[in-house]
Amino acid sequence: MLEVRAAGGLLAPVDERAARAQLRRQIAALEAQITDALISSFPHGGPQTAARSADGPRVLSLGELEAVRDALAARLAEARAALAERGRREEAGRALLERMLLEPGRHKFVRVANRDLGERGCGVWQVRPRLGLIGMLMGWWQVKLSSGCPLAS
Amino acid sequence: MTAGDPTLDEGWVARELADEYPDLRLVSTTAPPPGARSSRALRERLALLADRFHGARALTIRREPVPAAYRAFFRHIGLDPDMERTPVEAAVLDRLVQGGFTSRGTLDDALLIALVETGVPVWAIDDERLDGPLGLRTARAGERLGEGEYAPDLAPGRLVVADADDAVAVLFGDIAPSRRPGRDTARLRLFTVAVPGVPELHIEEALLGCADALSE
After folding, report:
1. Which of A98, A114, A150, B118 has the fewest CB atoms within 10 Å, measured from its CB?
2. What distance in Å separates the CA atoms of residue A57 and residue B84, rounded to the nearest whole number?
3. Any CB–CB contact under 8 A between A35 and chain B?
4. Whether B76 and A60 lie within 8 Å, measured CB to CB
């Protein structure tokens, strides 16, 4: 049993088992949220995993449950930050691609990879001159999407 | 369940565990010993099941209610399911690596079918080497997994599956070698561990489905 100081200055007993049950509920909720984060971040890697436990299955103490909960919360925060950062990068990439398509002449030779847009595949959007050197001199610019992944060497 | 179906036996759970995990259960049933080689029907079922598990499913399965319940319970008992995978996740990962569910004999195939169809792990031990009903408890000081001088030590407090006398398996871990089914096994004891959040229907389906597959 834990003891906490009550308002009157007396020590009041607190059921440690109830606290452990509460921590288990928090751990289950965090686990579900980490799973969602992992699935959302696929295939860009997910939250980091912890080290293998040497102690095997056992009833965790309150302190151990708190450590598990805190580690999961940290992992979730890290995963969400990485997801948010990637979201920002992809949004910026999509905005840039839109500008490239609207005004290719102002974005000469700018490249945006599909990967940076959150898309699959190895395609790269690039502003290139139409008809090579002539297009360059005449200011004929266009956005081209390269197709396919490079062949394995 | 029909009159001919095997009955399910509710195992005991030590007081300290029952207080801590009110919905933790061990359920078991008996089954006749299987033949060594898998039948064509079992191998075909494995192949059909393999078709249901593609790369995306290997990732999303942990979001499904039963696998998610085992994942959460792993965390509750100090196991990291990303390192020590839950049985169903391990099976699905194996299927991806191997390109299919590999047949490894009637018993292993039946256990695998029950696992991937329900998400509930089932284990088998030799019923005639058991002393009393199966249950869950923590390991005692100085206890070992199985008999003999090479039997591994069990750390006190480790969660184990036990009969009246000895630990017969680590929870979600190894079975004592002396309790594993062998050629002279006359009757199997199939058991599963139900964790909070796993519906009763899945438990029944896993055990009865496994017993059924053994008779194919």
Report:
1. A150
2. 11
3. yes
4. yes
Closest CA to B160 of B191, B189, B182, B181: B191
B60 vs A contacts (CB less than 8 Å) = 39
Are the beta carbons of A53 and B79 separated by less than 8 Å?
yes
Q: What is the pLDDT of residues A56-78, one digit of tens each?
A: 899 999 999 999 999 999 999 99
Joined tokens for residue B41: 């029907």
Which pLDDT score, from 0 to 100, does residue A4 have?
A: 47
Q: Which amino acid is at A12?
A: A
Does residue A48 sit at the B interface (CB-CB below 8 Å)?
Answer: no
Going along chain B, which residue ranges are E strands? 9-10, 12-13, 25-31, 123-126, 135-138, 159-162, 167-170, 188-194
CA–CA gap between residue A79 and residue A73 (Å, rounded): 10
Q: Does A65 touch chain B (CB under 8 A)?
A: yes
What is the secondary structure of A20-67 as a DSSP string? HHHHHHHHHHHHHHHHHHHHHHTTS--PPP-PPPSS-SBPPPHHHHHH
CA pair distance B183, B109, nearest whole angstrom: 17
Cβ atoms of B47 and B169 within 8 Å: the answer is no
Any idea how long chain B is? 216
Residue to substitute from B76, B137, B198, interface A, most A β-carbons within 10 A: B76
Q: Does B79 touch chain A (CB under 8 A)?
A: yes
pLDDT per residue as tens digits for the range B34-49: 877 888 889 999 999 9
> In terms of Cα–Cα distance, which of A14, A117, A20 is closest to A63?
A20
> To probe the interface with B, which of A31, A44, A64, A69 has the most B CB atoms within 10 Å?
A31
pLDDT in tens, B144-168: 998 777 888 999 999 999 999 899 9
pLDDT at A12: 43
Closest-CA residue of B relative to A31 is B72
Helix axes B106-118, B87-98, angle to 10 degrees: 110
